[in-house]
Design a protein that fits this description.
The protein is α/β, with parallel strands linked by helices and 196 residues long. It is built from eight helices and six strands, in the order H-H-H-E-E-H-E-H-E-H-E-H-E-H. It has helices spanning 6-12, 20-32, 34-51, 68-71, 86-94, 122-131, 145-158, 183-191, and strands spanning 53-54, 61-62, 79-83, 102-104, 136-140, 164-167. Strands 4-3-5-6 form a four-stranded parallel beta sheet. Strand 3, helix 5 and strand 4 (102-104) form a beta-alpha-beta unit. Helix 1 (6-12) crosses helix 2 (20-32). It starts with 5 loop residues before the first helix and ends in a 5-residue tail after the last helix. The mean pLDDT is 91.
Length: 196
Amino acid sequence: MTTGLDPLIRLLAKLPGLGPRSARRLALHLVTHRETLLEPLAHILAETAQTVRVCSVCGNLDIQDPCAVCRDPRRDTSVLCVVEDVGDLWALERAMAHRGPYHVLGGVLSALDGVGPDDLSFGSLLHRVTETGVREVILALPSTIDGQTTAHYLAERLAPTGVLLSGLAQGVPVGGELDYLDDGTLAAALKARRPV
């Protein structure tokens, strides 16, 4: 059955975590709550499309360029944290885990998805490292094959700069019980062991 909602359903189904059935339920809910949800959402989406920008320095999203993180004078600009996407930057900020600047790659290398070095912001990263006095680069990339491939590629590209490279620790999470962890996490925890 086709309805006037089909374009909306197809578009919603492209969002992460939504398939056609969830998109159909969401579209129906939005339309049946036109005044309280659909119209305000349409207004906010249009406003967001006009005001939110990609930071020309780090790749974060903000209403100003450079973003609030890049403009913050209290940041330790000598330690740069490289992340896959803006969601990772926001997670680290939420945890108050890094008090320096960031660099958003915009993805990770992936032969299967056709993502190569030219598709990511490697050039601007190299420029930032060589031109701004960065002494350490933290590669805060996912512990996936693509994430590790990207980290290895970046390590090779950054090696000639002499900058210190570090990565996130991997292993047992705080409060994690060994019996419930997967084999890969346990192996990483044993490899990354430290003196007690």
